Structures are given as structure tokens and as C-alpha cells.
Amino acid sequence: DRWNSFARLHYTTRTLVERYEPGGAQTEVYEAQTGGAIDTGRWIIQEASDTLNATVDIVSPIKQQLLDYQKNPWHVIQWTGGTSQDGVTCELVIVDTLEELDSTPRGRLTGKIILTKLVPRGLLRKLDDTGAVGVITDSPQTHMPDATPWVKFGWGQVGRSEDPARLVGLVLSENEGNKLRSLVMQCGVLKLHVRVDVRRYLGTHDVVSGIVPGRDDPQDEVWVLAHSAEPGAVDNASGVSVCLEIARVLERLIADGKIKRPRRSIRFLNAYECYGFFHYMEHVHRLQAPLAGVCLDTLGTKPEYCDGRLSWRATIPMSAGFVDRLGEKMLQASLDIKNPGYTLHTGGFVSTSDTLVGDPKYGFPCPWLNTHYRDAGVYHAYHSSADTTELLSPDGLATCAAAIAGYLYYLADMGSTEIIEIAALETARTVDLLQAGVKGSQSGLGASTGHVRGTSGEQGTRIERLTPTDAVFLCEAHRTSVDRLRRWLWGGDRNAVLTEIAQNKKRVAAAADPFGRTRNTTMPGADRIPYRTAFLSPSLANVP
């Protein structure tokens, strides 16, 4: 995946299949075709792109190689344009601020290449208007001046608002950029020879499934999302590796007779972030949406690189939040058995954006496990060439694998008895929150701990009381959770279970009574219901 070429991503597919199957898991490969449905908001990669080679050499007044893709694939911006086979010789100009870029007359830099500390994503039209053949960015990687940042002109495509700009895009580390700037100061004008060999075409990208099949109802599934197709070890070879290990461990325990095969199937999905998973969800027929799941993205970082923070982020608020508490219990139990140096930090929903699958209409409850955050900000090597296996803790990965294996197995195997237990716990929690009458991280209404960029801990010390609207939110969240639990009905007296769920709702409603009814503040016309035309949240890169 570190080569950022679609042809290479198919090698990843083969590697994954070769790892899942010997461990006992079944495999499926779904090919998502690129292209189509432009300006619809659909999560579509418009075209495949293979970088075959790229070099930049200073040719005047000195001779020196500046970069080579074969030595460092991070030097090439994803979705870069290419040059002719012979390459292009051009003068280097420095444009480091938006003010300089905005004040550059249209076409003034025709035939030249820009060196900038700006991140070019989102600036393609402005850069293209200058007439430049391309851009070299040395935007700093925080605290890591020797690291080459991973830069894209767009996520799964160049944004439609940036079309039809086509530029060569290249990257240097901060220190490499400083050296190049020093040469400009010494020599005045530098001429570069740029050669970028890129093939863009109608192609496919793969969604790989590793499946632990269920014994009783295999069509009902619990899903694990761990994106591949990115070049980092922590982000996200770690999540993919944990998928492989969980599948292997579960199948081994089943084969050894230590656990039964779960009632329902567990599906591990590895694909291009969002674009692979969402395409698969929209186009592959199934009788029902997945029951629940988890997103594994950026795991097992050594404690010294993430300040020992193991973060468990909630599913999207309008989905069934009981999975948040279940996962938290599993994680804390695993840390109590063997702790590689982590402290568990829970927090509210964050869009990774894979976690948008929590959409209650089409998706499933999906919390996010990660070691992405530090006490302030994120791990320093994020999206850079410094994101290597040296940052990973084998014990940290093992702890994550053990906890999530328990979480997945419980969800895949639970039946009516577990439904009653979870519904009772969710009810007691909601009643306690309503009776306490205070906003906070546990209620989902206040600031959560240890997850926001540049912040740490609770935000402020002011105590806020629950409002009638807050009480409605808590009641709705409880209703969503206990209603979702009905999907797991298996065995026992069905009517008795449903009656117990109804009684739990009444207990919560009684606890909310002191807050009274919310005042009707509906504006005229606000009762209109929008008709959804896009599956899940729309991709803003694919709108006009």
C-alpha cells in the first residue's frame, strides 16, 4: 500500500486472502469499479491511478537529484498529473503564502514549477491559474522535519470543485525544502528536470472480506471495518493486521473446542477508506443491514508515541449506543489482564469517516478503537513517511485484538438472555443520568475526555443542568438502543422479552417526567421531510 498505486493495491488483496484462509476464515473479494455517477454525492473513485516512476533533478546551475519515487514513494502526491516520457525542464519559483498566490497574475508562471509551504489540496484551481506545470510542497510535518508528509490532491478523487485542474504534484520533507530554498538563495535561479510517469484509467479497487461464519444464522453479520490502501504502519496496517489475528484466533479456538462457533457471522472488511466500504454496502445485496460493528483504524501505537492513550470513540449519536458500553467493558477487562502501558479514554463520536456507517437508516452502530490521539493533538508521524513499524507495540496490538475479539464474539453469539441484561443496564444508566440531572461526558451531552485535537480532559468546570430537550435526547437514545436489541432475539419467550423492553422504556419515561414537556418551537414549514437521494452521508468531493 505504501506505493499509492492501484495496481499495487491488488497485491494487497492477494496478501490478505493468503493470510485469512490459512487461519481458517472464509474469504470474498468484491471489485468496485471506478467512475460513474458524477456530481451525485456518491462515494465513487472516478479513475484509478498508477505511479510508475518519478524523479526531479536540479540541472542548472548545479546538478543534483532532488527526489526519486523508487527510493521514497511519499515524494509523489496522490492523484498527481504526469509529464511526457522525456519529462519537462522548468524554473523553480517560491510561492509560500495565499496572498502571494492570489496576487499572481493569471498565466504569469507558465512553464514553471512552484515550491510552497502551503498544502496544495483545495488550491488546485488557483495553482493551475498561474500556468505552472506543477507544485512541490514542503509543508512541515509537526515535530518531524525529516519526515515526508503524505499529501493528496483529493481523498478518493480530485474534488469536483477543483476539476479540470491537472498538475504535477510532488512532496519534500521540511528539511529537504529548507535545503532547496538555501540553494535558491545561493544560486538565484534553479532549473529542474521533472519526470513523472503516471497512468490513469478505468479500473477497480477491491473490498476484501475475511469471514468467521455463524452456526445458526450466518446471513446475519457483525462487521469490522479496517481500511487498507494507505501507506502508514500505524495508519492503518495495524488495523488490518488486528483483523487477521482476530479471525485466526477465533477460528483456532473454535477448532480446538474452546468456544462454540458464534450464532451469527463476523465479517472483517479491508478496503479503500469510505470509498470501498460504502460502495460495498450500497451495491451488494443482503436481507438486512449488519447488526453492529467496530472501526479499527490506527491501533497499537507504542505508549510513548500516543501518551499511553487507548481511545474508544462512541458510535454516531443517533445509533444504538449500547455498543459503546459493551466495548468499553471488554477493553477495560483486557487492560486489567495485561496492560501494555495504556489508559482507556472514552469519548464522543468522531467521523473517521468510516464511522459514518453508523447511519441508522442504512448502517449499523460502529464505535472506533484507536491510539491516534495524544494528550494534545495526534501522534506526530500521522500521514507521513515516519509512520513505520517501529512505532507499533506488539503487546498493544495483542491487547486490542483480544478485547475486540471478545466484543465481536459477544455480539455475534448473544441471544434473548443477553438482550434482557443489556436492556436493564441501559435503562439503569439512563435513569441514573436523568435523576442526576447534569450534563457530562457520560450523558453524551457534555464535553468528552481526551479526544479533541489540542485539548485534554473535560472542558471547563462549570456544571450544566439537563434541560427538557436534553431529557428527550436521553430518552430517544435509550429507545434506539433497546429497540435495536430486538434484532438479537434468539430463544426464550419472545413475548416476555418484548414486554421487558417495553417496561424499560416506561421506567425511563417516568424518570424523565420531572423535566416536563419541551416547548413547541417549530417554525412554519419545518415539518417538511427531506427525501434522501444519496446513500449515507454524501461525499463533498463528488458534488458540483
TrEMBL record:
- Domain Peptidase M28: start-end pairs: 221-406
Q: Which InterPro entries match?
A: Peptidase_M28
Output this protein's name.
Peptidase M28 domain-containing protein
Source organism phylogeny? unclassified sequences, metagenomes, ecological metagenomes
